[in-house]
Amino acid sequence: MIRIVEKYLTFEKGCVFADFELDAYAQLDVEVELDAPAELDLALGEVAADGRVEREPGGYRIIRTMQKSCPAGKSAFAFDLPPHKSPYAYSDSVPLPPEADGREVTPFRYVEIIGGNGKVKLIRKAFYGDFDDNAADFCCDNDNLNHIWDFCKYTMKATSAFGFYIDGERERQPYEGDALSNLLGDLCCGGSALTAKRTIDWLLKTPTWFTEWQLITPFLVYYYWLYTGDQASVDMWLPELEKLLATFTLQSNNLLRDATPEELVNRVRRDLIDWPPDERDNYELGLYNLTPNCYYAAALQIMAELTGKNEYSIVAEKVKTAILKTFRNGEKFIDSTGSTHTALHSVLYPAYFKIAELTNEMRHILLDKGMSCSVFTAQFLLEYCFDNGLSDHAYNLLLSNDLRSYNNMLRCGATIAMEAWDDTLKPNQDWNHAWGAAPANLIPRCIAGIKPLEPGFKRFTVTTHPGKLKEFYCKHPTPYGAIELEFKQSKYTLTVPQGTEAYISNGIYSAGKHVLP
How many CB atoms lie within 10 A of CB 220? Predict the structure, then answer.
């Protein structure tokens, strides 16, 4: 899908500046009508300051420049974008959008041309994947939450250009961790199941090298199954998933261990905890780490459900028992063997993955630490808080104005989610990273509370957490049509699509429109 926007400008003091309002993967064509021959200096980018394109935005914030000699009168040319090249040898970039006709694309919002006099026509061709703008909606009486929803929904659309879930412009390839929030957000907001399918295909063929990332792959298949009902693809993936899980070896203590320094000489699988490293809340890494073992126990349970094989559940219980024996320290957990420290992650993951109930001490730690994590872990933190009696805390974090907040991304001027909360926290970050847009799925799944219970939404649940919202409206796509939920004057009105059933605490609701008591 291509969206073409044209801007007609006149040089003022030898300069034109254009703001296309939203960042997008795009190409630029230029038509000029100059009063005299000129050497034009062109720049396009994602960051602007004082009405000019920022020429040194830092990190992987986009800046592209070009010089062009133009005669007097009319002339037209394309902005020449260099081929994308990842800075890392291991990165295998996804193909260009087919509609790009072989021309490179890059994300940009702003254009500046210096050095001429006369008129300019700028034509931006923005590329998007298969995305239905009208399939999903959310609005409420809190303008801040509305802005965050729009920002995160647009992130799903803008980063869909390649037909895969990519990790941002720097590498432009799928990663399992990035794909988790991206898949959920995309399927909640009107994206294509085909994009999710292509991404899972890619990751099963070329898994990345972090323990937790590889263990997220069963989650991707499971959520894809629930949201699409595509059993044929799941059946095709299961043998590869089983091969992947078979590469994980428990030690004699029934835990996974991290790679040793000697093993890290080669590119072997290693524990991640969170990324960037400064977002680990001072997590103390050891040979045996709590976080990846929590992921492993949860991945095994998902494999049991996907395959129907009880042996996965048996191993999962062994791992859970070993986690409790090794990492539990009174009413809290420690980060790793040999550590006495408790990072936010060591509170969150045992609770999120249902390995242990949140004790009073763990609850206090979780509340006290706030958003001491990356944009990736925010997915788990906010979801857990919304769904486990801490929705006030979830709202506080979701609507925060702190450095680690979605409002900070907006304050920085981003229109696509950033790779990290702020440039200062990850200096090499890019500004087009869908894993930073967790509210795209958390708002429909946790605030509106709409989640599938059976593959393809044949049965779904609605468990709302309106908090201080006086009213909201949510439209959620399913293979059977849209679920619509309105909250107004303390009443709910629910539209259930034909062929589905809604399971709510006060009963089961068949297809049709219902006013809930």
Answer: 25
For residue 9, what pLDDT is reported? 98
Give CA angle at 57 (51, 61), nearest 5°.
Answer: 110
Q: Residues 6 or more apart from 264 whose CB is under 8 A from it? A: 270
φ, ψ of residue 176 in degrees (nearest 5):
-60, -45
Q: Do β-strands 501-504 and 459-462 pair in parallel, antiparallel, or remain unpaired?
A: parallel
How many other C-beta atoms are found inside a 10 Å radius of the C-beta of residue 118? 17
Per-residue pLDDT of 337-347, as tens digits, reads 999 999 999 99
**pTM summary value:** 0.97
- Collapsing DSSP to helix, strand or coil, 336 comes out as strand
Collapsing DSSP states into helix, strand and coil, what is residue 6? Answer: strand
Q: For 45-59, b where at least 16 C-beta lie within 10 A, e where not — what string?
A: bbbbeeeebbeebeb
Q: Could you give the CA distance from residue 368 to residue 345 in angstroms, rounded to a whole number?
A: 13
Contacts of 85 (CB under 8 A, 6+ apart): none
Q: φ and ψ at 447, to 5 degrees?
A: -75, -55
Residue in the structure block whose two tokens are 């001491």: 372
Helix (H) / strand (E) element for 70: namely: strand 63-70
Counting every residue written for the chain, the total comes to 517
Token pair 């979801």: residue: 383
Report DSSP letters for 65-111, one per residue: EEEEEE-SEEEEEE--PPPP--SSTT--PPPPPGGGTT---EEEEEE
**In angstroms, rounded to a whole number, what is the distance separating the alpha carbons of residues 68 and 168?**
29
What are the tokens at 354? Answer: 């249902």
Would you state the torsion angle of the CA atoms of residues 145, 147, 153, 157, taken in this order, to the nearest 10 degrees?
A: -170
- Helix, coil or strand: residue 154: helix
Alpha-carbon distance of 145 to 151, in angstroms, equals 10
CB 29 within 8 A of CB 126: no
Residues of the chain under the 70 pLDDT cut: none
Which strand (E) or helix (H) includes residue 196?
helix 193-205
Neighbours of 127 (CB within 10 A): 21
Write the DSSP symbol of residue 445.
I
Strand positions, DSSP E, 357-506: 450-452, 459-462, 472-476, 483-488, 491-496, 501-504
490: CB partners within 8 A, 6+ apart: none
The CA-atom distances, in angstroms, between 354 and each of 176, 296, 320, 379 are: 22, 12, 9, 16
The three-state secondary structure class of 138 is: strand
φ/ψ of residue 8, rounded to 5: -110, 120
pLDDT in tens, 401-445: 999 999 999 999 999 999 999 999 999 999 999 999 999 999 999
DSSP string, 351-378: HHTTSS---HHHHHHHHHH-S-S-HHHH
- Residues 457 and 6: their CA atoms lie apart, in Å, by 41
